[in-house]
Amino acid sequence: MSPPLLHVEGLAKSFGALAVTDDVSFSMDEGRLVALIGPNGAGKTTLIDQLSGALKSDAGRISFAGLDISGLDMPARAELGLVRSFQIAAVLPEYSALENVALAVQARSGSSFRFFTSASREERLNSPARAALKRVELLARASEPAGGLSHGEKRALEIAIAIALRPRLLLLDEPFAGLGSDETRAGVDLVRALKSEYSMLLVEHDMDAVFALADEIGVLVSGRLIAWGAPEAIRANARVRSAYLGEEALA
Fold it and tell me: Smallest Cα–Cα separation from 200: which of 224, 177, 167, 233?
């Protein structure tokens, strides 16, 4: 039997006396979309930072595809296929959408960003960059400066950047934050379409999106996982109702 794609055991991170993540343990299999939910300040983004390597844990162990990656930094984890997006859209506004994705392709190949000005014209970078933009329905905007894209388009561009890194697991940190209803629907449709190609761990506050997309849901409150299971089990969980979701959100 193959190991889970991601296995987390006893993960903890404190800032001074404040325990932000506290003995977090879970596993997820390949081909799944797992949503991580919880109130503001629950430790969700800190946990994503720990998983991606952006933040060093105080304790615990992270295994990815059977390999202990606890001591690896963010680039090394990304090279293995553990790739994250950010809660706040992280694009280079002065570069075109195509150039933003080409930078990710270049980073994946190990080339230095110092040579990007000339390398951006190379087909070996632009071809996979265009493919990633097409996958998120942004190919028509390839030549547009990223700073001129709408908020929803920037979110889609960020996902294109992530998939250009050839992820095995995508860590998506609030991809629908700040979007209007139409853009949220488009974002949910995009993530649903990508489910057949990528395993995903999704942090999100939009409960409609979470219950529409997730195969499993984990609930983080005050740094601890209080529940983990299928959406219908989470919806029926009395402790989750009391601690976070409430009757109205689960109706």
Answer: 167
